[in-house]
């Protein structure tokens, strides 16, 4: 797929995946549009390329008055930065986000400051988020259900990536919207890589979140980065191995170098061999992931 394009998700009726073109990178950021009886947008992108998402929603056949739900999987701005813009455009849509993320979307000032500190020059690819009005947003938690009229999504807490992170399960369609709970799926190489950003990545909990998805036994896993993937026997095992190997790699490099900035510099340099994203995105992703593991290791020491 290319930035701004959308296509049906194979095997799931009325579900579409939209490529946001996040960070000027094809097949990195996904938004899912479910054309159910009460239509829903799952995740929103950063907000920077929102007009293309609006065009996709219109092309699918969902009118501005018809969208019922805006459902970020968590409050990180690559998944929820567009929520305020979508709330403005779709006046009847209610915003739901895991409970610990509500305050960040209602008043994004602190989240913006933290994101700018974490992503540094990559902030140019974000839109300044707009607050979601208090009367349009509410929290969801473990076991809650989102009514789409002809189906429903079940909320399952998955806080390993961040405390305000959940996955959403449609048991009838046998699909899980995993967001960042099972890592990043890279279609070009058909492989899963970890996502371990600061400051609250929790390694053990992340493995538990992958086991949660395994227990749901979906036919399709919809990754926030990037796209849907058939959930065969190897997919989630590969995700667990990727996390274990990455955390151990950072741990060993810290023991070897004894300086965290040297660890980040070394891993950033190694990321220059990545050829499936643009070099800037590959380096920024590696830097964030390394810093997240280092913060996790600090909490355990």
UniProtKB/TrEMBL annotation:
One Pfam entry name: Lactamase_B
Domain of life: Archaea
Name assigned to this protein: Beta-lactamase
SMART domains from the UniProt entry: Lactamase_B (SM00849)
SUPFAM superfamilies listed in its UniProt record: Metallo-hydrolase/oxidoreductase (SSF56281)
Parts of the chain that traverse the membrane: none
InterPro entries to which the protein is assigned, alphabetical: Metallo-B-lactamas, NDM-1-like, RibonucZ/Hydroxyglut_hydro, ST1585_MBL-fold
Domain Metallo-beta-lactamase: 28-225
